[in-house]
Design brief:
The chain folds into two domains: 80 residues, no CATH class; 49 residues. The chain has 148 residues and is mainly beta.
Amino acid sequence: MSRHQLAAHPDRPEVSHAVIGWDRPLATYFVQVFSKGSRERVIFWQGTAPGEIPTAEAAIALAEPFTIIPDDLAARLRRDFAEQPIRPPSHPLVGKRVRIRREGQPDVEGTIVQSHLTGFFARLDSPAPGKEAGTILVFPEELELLRK
């Protein structure tokens, strides 16, 4: 994973700074923007799902309203990608339909979209209770393979 800290744009006094980078395990660029104040918090965060932001230029476009963009940032981000390329989703479960069972929570169904160092990313058919729809990290012991 790479991280490049960016200064806040002068027209955004509520912004402390932003971070932009490449996240290899998720195969996406990401942008985080932080607030000023005694309790700094994330006020904008994109690039949390596999493949969400596919290009350096797309990530820069998301950061631009909040920060000052250095002239060489796109080149640095592309270099980060080249040095940490995406691993192919070679696991046999990729593309398979699964039921995800977590203790104390209702079962949810989805599709394995990518392998990860510790488990898999599954795209949910519908949101889990209390969760947003999207992609979650699941572990092998939580999976039940569904028949077609």
